[in-house]
Amino acid sequence: MVHSSGGTGIVMLNLGGPRGLDDVGPFLERLFEDREIIQLPAQGVLGPFIARRRTPKLRRTYESIGGASPLYHWTSEQGRGMAERLDRLSPETAPHRSYLAFRYTDPLTGEALRQMAADGVERAVAFSQYPQFSCSTTGSSLHELWRQVRHLGLESAFTWSVIDRWGSHPAFTGTVARKVAEGLQQFDEAVRDDVVVLFSAHSLPLRIINRGDAYLQEVAASVHEVMRHLDFSHEYALSFQADVGPVAWQGPSTASVIRALGRQGRRHVLIVGIVFTTDHLDTLHEIDHEFAEIAAEAGVTGFRRAPAPNDDPLFLDGLAEVVAAHLRSGEPCSRQFGLRCAGCTSTSCREIVRPVTSHRPAPVTTPADPR
Amino acid sequence: MVHSSGGTGIVMLNLGGPRGLDDVGPFLERLFEDREIIQLPAQGVLGPFIARRRTPKLRRTYESIGGASPLYHWTSEQGRGMAERLDRLSPETAPHRSYLAFRYTDPLTGEALRQMAADGVERAVAFSQYPQFSCSTTGSSLHELWRQVRHLGLESAFTWSVIDRWGSHPAFTGTVARKVAEGLQQFDEAVRDDVVVLFSAHSLPLRIINRGDAYLQEVAASVHEVMRHLDFSHEYALSFQADVGPVAWQGPSTASVIRALGRQGRRHVLIVGIVFTTDHLDTLHEIDHEFAEIAAEAGVTGFRRAPAPNDDPLFLDGLAEVVAAHLRSGEPCSRQFGLRCAGCTSTSCREIVRPVTSHRPAPVTTPADPR
Fold first, then answer.
1. Beta bridge partners of residue A241, listed in sequence order
2. CA of B45 vs chain A CAs: smallest distance (Å)
3. What is the ipTM of this complex?
């Protein structure tokens, strides 16, 4: 592989979160403008209208967790730690620089691209910080990335590859397993064996599930891998949170599961975020406040949360390993990235602008006993 | 472990299927009487009524696949092959005898229990032939098992343990992976790389999913493990079939995914049953006829099905390994079996009549880097 003197730029794609209360309004406006997540009639008018109506409530929620989302802080730290490690791990692709590209708040994607161009980066990796693939998250971020590349006339500035999913990679599942183990230590030894480990994922509307989005199967695969790291030491379940509004969502809902476990007399629940790598509103507000309250009412007297990966040094090692392996592979994306959602009608889905050339060997199809 | 001279009885729990056209009526009647699957007002009247109305159509469907379900044949062969192998693999628990206990057709559970008593069996294993756990399948069969044990006054005749789930065991996932590889061989080498591997599972009503049934996460875990055996060599997706009637089912539906892949111009699809170990109506009729027709109409010109495990000798080895490992463990069930569906209100769920004593060690909760 030939690498330019500009080294490697790693673009950390994420949703973003308000860095102050005045960012809440613009955050919601961008969210309700995103047709990959929400489809409204007359979206250009109705989207901003709904966003404005919801802003005061969401401002109060952010106020309750200190006035800002910690997503910027943690993702910056992760990018910095990862890039340092990559310089050691993969000197042939150094220097490595990380860039944040948030979907709904500053720093937005265009900012990342302009900075990359200024830094002389030529080899670029779009690294989704959503470990499991969904068109509504990673898909939306990638669409925005290519739109901005074109908008800024940077089509020939960079050679791209994409880390589109890594939810089953030990860098992620091994970290979450350690966090589950840490979480279990918060329980008294006498009851630790009785703890139900409840994995909670951001839900998706059934409309998206039913068009064949990969999210559900990938989240369940993450849960399975985490439990395998733990040798299936505890009872566990998967449920879904953040199901708001009038549409039908994938269930079971985390709130209903907590209530129901309480009714069954289960007293000890460790809740584990399984689709984000940092603390954010789902953990700091919905889990730590709303669900904690629901748990207390339901008689779940021991309700704890496993820490998020955040800046755990072993997790930063893992991020660097994911990128280093990706760079070594010479692949533009995962094989699975080629499969659009069955119900997808967008022809630009799965586009990569100016991709690296694939070195993928012919697939293994010879029967062999894999046991 | 002390074992009786009666050796070990392995009860193969399965749904069953009509062995002749006259069995179709009683099969449907028992199905519509099963409150673990279907809940109707005035079920004792309405159930048989619906069953009678549906009988003629289902008779015609069975006529089209030769007048009977092959489930009895294959499950018998599997039980026989497994028991022979177990005698060699685990002489200390020999002799091993397998018994079929079907939920909706002969041989019913009571018949198995009577035969076991006549054979002098004392150590009994309830081995669910549904690899992934659902209360609507394995749960229903176990409920029926304990009901019949009591009904026949056999509460102290046997010491029981349960193999309640094994959908991630290499005996199953390794076999399915080999069957996928065999299926891929049916495609011309020039197009083999483009084949979409479509895993199809029997669907469940969202009502059951939303009360916290483990099925969804376990099916997705099976898919993940199968693809891992194949080194993720092809694009793949998971969809759900057999969604009939007016209730809402877990999606995406296999039929809609096949149609949509055709619309996208995908020409080659290998469909893989992921929740049954034998051929039955889902494969021989729904996939091989209905879906094949849908595929042809949608332009999926290369539509093939991976063979079912049936009596594949390596699969029979695997069944024996699953049981041998279970017997060695001395455990009455999986740890996960202890967790009822969150929304479950039945207090008899997770019962085991006269279980073997657990040898389970304290769970591993010490943090360690699992990578």
1. A202
2. 32
3. 0.92
